[in-house]
Amino acid sequence: MSMEGRTCVITGSARGIGRGIAEHLGSEGANVVVNYRSSEEAAQEAVDTVEAAGGNAVTAQADVSDREAVEHLREVCHEAFGPADVLVNNAGITADKQFTEMSREEWDRVMDVNLGGMFNCTQAFYDDIWNAEEGRLINISSIVGKQGNFGQANYAAAKSGMFGFTRTIALEFAQGGSTANCVAPGFTRTDMVEDVPDEVLDRIISGIPLERLAEVEDIAAVVRFLASEKSSYVTGEVIDVNGGMDL
Ligand code: NAI
């Protein structure tokens, strides 16, 4: 199995895209750290699924926007499996409002989790990935970071901020042979899009050349490639997984 013995930390992986990534990597034999903020039961279910698929997994509670909590995440990883080979910064939130209605608190909250969480986790696992053979940093951005989206000025700013961060870390890591890339999903069927009204979803789907939303597996399959040793000459890139939305 291609991920056998590789230790992967995936933030926000109790559900949604993160969970799909955990299951995909787990089914390839990876050691997976399932990070969650509050849903312990869901995180444990994710661990059970990974183990049933042939991987090893542990849960680790941590709010990624809290640097001390992220230290705990690192300790859990080190105790269970040793240093990480792969970090997937997947945890993310939205707080949508048309810009004139958006509060500074809603701006800060989205920055704290999406960018602050990426900062905290990347710093905590930087040395691990640098020192790993074929270390990998994978940041889950969004098509919204490229195109913008009505009512998502905070989220779009955070998601496009991930691009510049990733390219910079890619340059730093290159000297040690590790890589850093972004995956930019299009609209994906998870809890995050559950509240989007059907008529809006229909409008979104009508603008997607492949005529459907992404499934979690579509995103996880690309992350799995980037996490593997097969992607060793890909770095500093943004890989779009959006059904052709930006064609
Ligand atoms: P989701 O809401 O189902 O899952 C996000 C996960 O992150 C949840 O498990 C949540 O508990 C966790 N999380 C949130 N704040 C956290 C924190 N402070 N600390 C630790 N964990 C935290 O969302 P989904 O759809 O699975 O999104 C995953 C990533 O993919 C996010 O970064 C999102 O922005 C991105 N994305 C999602 C798209 C979609 O259409 N669903 C499209 C493009 C990007």
Would you give an account of this structure?
Pfam families: adh_short_C2. With 247 residues, the protein is an alpha/beta fold. The protein has one domain (7-188, 218-240): Rossmann fold, CATH 3.40.50. It has eight helices and seven strands; from the N terminus they run βαβαβαβαβααβααβ. It has helices at residues 16-27, 40-52, 67-81, 104-131, 144-147, 153-174, 198-206, 216-227, and strands spanning 7-10, 31-36, 56-61, 86-89, 136-140, 179-185, 238-241. It has a seven-stranded parallel sheet with strand order 3-2-1-4-5-6-7, with helices on both faces. It is globular, with a radius of gyration of 17 Å. The model has no long low-confidence stretch (mean pLDDT 96). 1,4-dihydronicotinamide adenine dinucleotide is lined by residues 11-12, 14-18, 35, 37, 63-65, 90-93, 113, 117, 140, 142, 185, 187-188, 190-193.
Write the layout of secondary structure elements.
Elements: E1 7-10, H1 16-27, E2 31-36, H2 40-52, E3 56-61, H3 67-81, E4 86-89, H4 104-131, E5 136-140, H5 144-147, H6 153-174, E6 179-185, H7 198-206, H8 216-227, E7 238-241
Helix pairs in contact: 1-2, 1-8, 3-4, 4-6
The structure holds 1,4-dihydronicotinamide adenine dinucleotide.
Number of DSSP strand runs: 7
So, CATH architecture?
3-Layer(aba) Sandwich
The helix content, as a percent range, equals 40-55%
Residue ranges: pLDDT <50 for 5 or more in a row?
none
Element pattern in H and E: EHEHEHEHEHHEHHE
The biggest sheet amounts to: 7 strands, parallel
**Overall tally of domains:** 1
Rg result: 17 Å
> Given the structure, what is the number of helices?
8
Mean pLDDT: 96
Cofactors, ions and other ligands in the entry: 1,4-dihydronicotinamide adenine dinucleotide
**CATH evolutionary superfamily:** NAD(P)-binding Rossmann-like Domain
Distance between the termini: 35 Å
Query: Pairing-aware structural class of the strands and helices?
Result: alpha/beta
Shape: globular
